[in-house]
Amino acid sequence: MTAADLAAEPQARPVTAAMARSHVRALLGTRAEAEAPSSTTVDDILLVVTELVTNAVRHGGGLVAFDATLDGETLAVSVTDASPTAPHTVPRTRSTAPGGFGWPLVRQLSREVTVTPTAHGKTIRAVMAAGPGA
Question: How many Å apart are CA 14 and CA 21, to the nearest integer?
Fold first, then answer.
């Protein structure tokens, strides 16, 4: 499947992190083997996708839109949710308390992260390396 084939197929908007990961994995799979990112890079990309979509569903009032674009050696993922509240790091009061790791991971694993307010929420765009040297 080529990137053009993937773009031509009608895609249902992902409503779960698993659906979003599947979409991104298929998009990355359109690359020739010599141009494909390492398995570690793919794992990092899928972790970012999981965190963004899960946070939209869990804390952002629901996933409104999802987009992933592969351009050269860069992958951009955009997630729009229904909450105007910008993501933030939750202070951890106990080392055993669950959660609080997602947003720092997204920022650490991405080249660039932007948060743009929308009329009914916000869009978070994460840009990540997706080439063979990544």
Answer: 9
Q: How far is the first Cα of the chain from the last one, in angstroms, to the nearest whole number?
A: 22
> In 1-134, at which residue ranges do the beta strands (DSSP E only) sit?
63-71, 74-81, 112-118, 121-129
Residues with Cβ within 8 Å of residue 25, at least 6 apart in sequence: 42, 46
How far from 51 is each of 3, 88, 99, 107, CA to CA, in Å?
24, 13, 11, 11
Query: For each successive 10 residues of the chain (134 residues), what is the average pLDDT?
Result: 44 83 94 87 97 94 95 95 89 66 93 96 97 78
Phi, psi of 57 (to 5 degrees): -75, -45
CB–CB of 45/130 below 8 Å? yes
Find out whether 49 and 25 touch, Cβ atoms under 8 Å: no
Q: How far apart are CA 60 and CA 48, in angstroms?
A: 16
Give CA–CA dist 83/100, Å, rounded: 18
Backbone angles phi, psi at 70, to 5 degrees: -105, 120
Instruction: Give the pair of three-digit tokens for residue 31.
Output: 């690359």
